[in-house]
Amino acid sequence: MPSQPPSPRSRIEPLFVGFAGRMGSSKTSAAKYLSSQYGFAYTRYSQVLQEWRSGMALTREQLQKLGWEVMSGGLQKELNTRLIAGIDRSQNTAIDGLRHEIDFRALSSAFDTAFYLIFLEASPKVRFERLRSRFGTLADFQAADAHPVDASIDSLRPFADTIISTDDRVENLHQRLDAWIAAHRPGGA
Question: How many CB atoms lie within 10 A of CB 137?
Answer without folding.
Answer: 10
